[in-house]
Write a structure and sequence with these properties.
about 375 residues; mainly alpha; about 0% strand; globular
Length: about 375
C-alpha cells in the first residue's frame, strides 16, 4: 500500500503544474481538507446560546451563568447581524480588486505623502489583522518603506470596511468615526517616527525595490477593467460565493469574540465590569495586560472593545483594546522580524506605538469616561 501511494505521488510530480492542479479529489496525493474548529465551534456555541435565549428566556435567566451568557449572545448578534451581511457583501466586492491597484494607491518611497497613501490603503483594505499582516509583508517585499509598512499595519486591522460597519452597529457612528480618525493619526505619527529612525540609521532601510506590472496605469486600466465586467446573474453569484468564502476568517473571529464578550457578561455584573475595566488608570492598565495576553484577531476584539465602551463607560479602554492588541501581537512582531531580518524593526513597533495608544486612551477616559 505504501509503494502504491509513493508511485501515485511520483507520477503526479512528473506532470506539469497545470495538470497537477486538475487531479481528482480522490487522488492519494490530494490534501485533506481541515475542519475549521474555531469557526464551527464558535458558531455552534453562538447559535446554541441565541436559540436558548430565544425559546427558553424565562427559565434560563434563573440559571446563574447560562442565563447571562445566552442573553449576551442574543443581544450582541441582534446588534451585529446587519453589519455581518453588509460586511460579507463588501468583502466579495473587494475580492475582485487586483492587488496591483492596492500597490498603486500605496505609492513608492517614504515621506508624508507616502505615509498618507499607506494609511489610506490600510483603511480601505478589507482584511483581518492576520490577513493584513500578510499583505503588509508583501508590500515590504515589493519596496514599501519601513514607515509605510508600519503605518499600513497600524491603520488596517480593525478599520476594514466590513468591521467598520459591524463596529457602527455596536458603538454607533460617532465613536466609530472617532476611533478611525485617531487610529489614522497614530498610524501617520508612527510612520513618521519610523522614517526618521531609518534616516538616522537607527533602523535598517528596506533593501527591496518596488515593482509594478509594466505599462500599468491606475485610471486607464481601472476603467477598462470595469467596462469589461458583465454585471449579470453569474457575476453576482460569484460575488456572493467570494464574499462567503473570503469572510470565513473574519466570521470565525467575530463568533469567537462574541463568545468571549458573552463570557465576560456572564462572569462580571455591570457594576463589577465597570469596577475592573472602568475609566481609571488601573482599568486602562488591566485592559493593556488583557489585550497583550489574548491572541484574538481584530474581528474578535471588536465586541469586547464595544463592551468596554458601552458597559464599562471607558472609551479609552475600548480604543486601547483595539489598537494595543495589534502593536503587541507576537505573531505580528515575529513576522516583521522574519521579513525585515531585524529585531530592532520588530520590537520598535510596540515601543513606538503602545505609549501613544495609552496617552490617547487616558485622554478619552478623562474627557468622555463615565
Amino acid at each position: 500500500m505504501q509503494d502504491k501511494e509513493q508511485n501515485c505521488c511520483a507520477s503526479q510530480d512528473s506532470q506539469s503544474q497545470a495538470q497537477a492542479e486538475t487531479v481528482h479529489e480522490d487522488s492519494c496525493c490530494h490534501p485533506k481538507r481541515k475542519i475549521d474548529w474555531l469557526l464551527w465551534g464558535s458558531l455552534i456555541v453562538v447559535a446554541t446560546g441565541y436559540c436558548a435565549h430565544l425559546f427558553f428566556h424565562a427559565r434560563l435567566m434563573e440559571v446563574p451563568f447560562a442565563g447571562p451568557f445566552a442573553h449576551g449572545v442574543f443581544e450582541l448578534m441582534n446588534r451585529m447581524w446587519w453589519g455581518l451581511l453588509l460586511g460579507i457583501f463588501f468583502v466579495g466586492m473587494l475580492s475582485k480588486v487586483p492587488r496591483e491597484y492596492v500597490l498603486a494607491v500605496l505609492g513608492r518611497g517614504g515621506g508624508l505623502t507616502g505615509l498618507l497613501r499607506a494609511t489610506g490603503a490600510g483603511l480601505m483594505l478589507d482584511l483581518c489583522s492576520h490577513g493584513i499582516l500578510l499583505v503588509g509583508m508583501k508590500l515590504y517585499e515589493r519596496g514599501a518603506s519601513v514607515g509605510q509598512v508600519m503605518a499600513f499595519l497600524i491603520a488596517s486591522p480593525w478599520n476594514s470596511l466590513s468591521l467598520t460597519i459591524i463596529l457602527i452597529s455596536l458603538i454607533g457612528l460617532p465613536w466609530t468615526l472617532a476611533f478611525i480618525v485617531l487610529s489614522a493619526v497614530l498610524a501617520i505619527v508612527t510612520g513618521l517616527i519610523f522614517e526618521g529612525l531609518t534616516r538616522r540609521g537607527v533602523l535598517p532601510p528596506n533593501p527591496n525595490t518596488a515593482d509594478m506590472p509594466e505599462g500599468f496605469r491606475f485610471w486607464r486600466d481601472g476603467v477598462r477593467a470595469i467596462r469589461a465586467v458583465r454585471f449579470d446573474a453569474t457575476y453576482f453569484r460569484e460575488l456572493a460565493a467570494a464574499g462567503l468564502t473570503e469572510s470565513k476568517m473574519i466570521l470565525r473571529w467575530i463568533f469567537f469574540g462574541t463568545v468571549l464578550a458573552a463570557l465576560l457578561r456572564a462572569v462580571f455584573t455591570p457594576e463589577q465590569f465597570e469596577t475592573w475595566f472602568g475609566p481609571t488608570l488601573a482599568g486602562l492598565a488591566l485592559t493593556l495586560v488583557a489585550t497583550t495576553i489574548m491572541e484574538v484577531c481584530s474581528e474578535g476584539s471588536s465586541p469586547i472593545a464595544a463592551d468596554l465602551l458601552t458597559r464599562a463607560a471607558a472609551p479609552g479602554n475600548g480604543f486601547t483594546f483595539l489598537m494595543a492588541g495589534v502593536a503587541t501581537d507576537y505573531t505580528e512582531i515575529l513576522s516583521i522580524r522574519e521579513r525585515t531580518k531585524s529585531w530592532k524593526v520588530a520590537l520598535f513597533l510596540p515601543l513606538v506605538t503602545v505609549p501613544q495608544v495609552l496617552v490617547v486612551g487616558l485622554l478619552l477616559n478623562r474627557w468622555f469616561g463615565g
